């Protein structure tokens, strides 16, 4: 894969994350945490998964490792996210 393709994929990822966060920001707290029965329990859990995946890949690219994970049940309303190792 060449550098131009990587940059294009990163731009798309940034755009897609922005669209997702913009849509989630419009939800009430009840809708944000409501059990949906999908792949993840709620919109909140889906966003925690997305954030964890971004964190994991950044760690792999930066250091070659990706220890720990964010759990969907963690409270994502704060600015400090617990890291489970």
How would you explain this protein's 3D organization?
The chain is mainly alpha-helical. The chain has three helices and no strands. The radius of gyration is 15 Å and the shape is flat. It starts with a helix and ends in a 22-residue tail after the last helix. The C terminus is likely disordered.
Topology, pairings included?
Blueprint: H1 3-25, H2 29-33, H3 43-63
Overview in brief:
The protein has about 80 residues and is mostly helical. It contains 3 helices and no strands.
Computed over alpha carbons, the radius of gyration is 15 Å
Q: Low-confidence runs (pLDDT<50, min 5 residues)?
A: 78-85
Structural class: mainly alpha
Helical stretch count? 3
Instruction: Please tally the β strands and state the result.
Output: 0
Which key features would you list for this structure?
85 residues; mainly alpha; 58% helix
């Amino acid at each position: 894969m060449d550098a131009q393709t990587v940059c294009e994929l990163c731009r798309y990822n940034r755009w897609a994350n922005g669209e997702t966060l913009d849509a989630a920001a419009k939800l009430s707290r009840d809708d944000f945490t409501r059990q949906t029965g999908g792949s993840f329990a709620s919109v909140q859990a889906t966003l925690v998964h997305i954030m964890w995946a971004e964190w994991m890949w950044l760690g792999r690219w930066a250091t070659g490792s990706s220890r720990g994970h964010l759990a969907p049940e963690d409270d994502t309303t704060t600015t400090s996210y617990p890291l489970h190792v």
